[in-house]
Predict the structure.
Amino acid sequence: MFILGVVLGLYKFLPDFLIENDFSKYSLYALMFFVGIGIGADNNALSVIRKTKIKIILVPLCVVIGSLLGAAAISFLISEISIAEAMAIGAGFGYYSLSSIFITEISGETLGVIALLSNISREIITLLVTPFFVKYFGKLAGIASGGATSMDTCLPIISESTGKEWAIIAVFSGVVLTIIVPFLVPFILTFI
Amino acid sequence: MIPVLLLMTIGLIIGYVLRNKIKFILISNKATTLIIYMLLFLLGIGVGLNKTIVSNMTNIGLQAILITFGAVLGSLIFAYITYKLFFIQKNEK
């Protein structure tokens, strides 16, 4: 859909009302409403935490801290991007659709595209390099690298290279990260 | 961003109250996916129309990869520490 939009925009093959009006703001409002319903209705969101030990919380927590610090460190290498912007992109945790839409609304299209590409590449890197990561960074490596995608697209490769018993931790970490993306990204861009 | 957080909170409450109405939840999930696709489409249009982005695509791509590299490496380091400190004993016992 994104690429189709780019092509249409490039060749201006569009009705004028689409270019002149800003639909995205109201669509975003509607989206947040439905995302809220989805989280509120999800029975798994809470029961996973109750069933497993407290220790499991450490997994998504270290992904959050690691992603934010790592992205912040990189921002010193890129003059165009501030620390907060880099952290907001890192806070997508691979959930590229939702995070890039937020970042576009708050910080503009250029940063939104960077967020989109960055978080898509996080998923691709995880899919390709997880076995190598697990070898050198321990059994949590695939889960950490996958971020929010550990619960769906990256789950098969994580489960295969780490072992099935880690799959539940992967799903848990992915669910937690997916839920906090819509809170964390606007929070970072607004307050940091 | 306040209307966004407000709407999400309202959604959370409605979702929790209606969590047993499976048909309603299914429709809500469908709507979420649909709107995400539509917004990505609109972002695509915006990007295609934006000359600064189109002419800087290589640079933008490079920045994106760099940030990913930092975020992934940071996560891996913290995951390694967490694994060594908290998870390794469990498996040896």
Summary: Chain B has a mean pLDDT of 83.
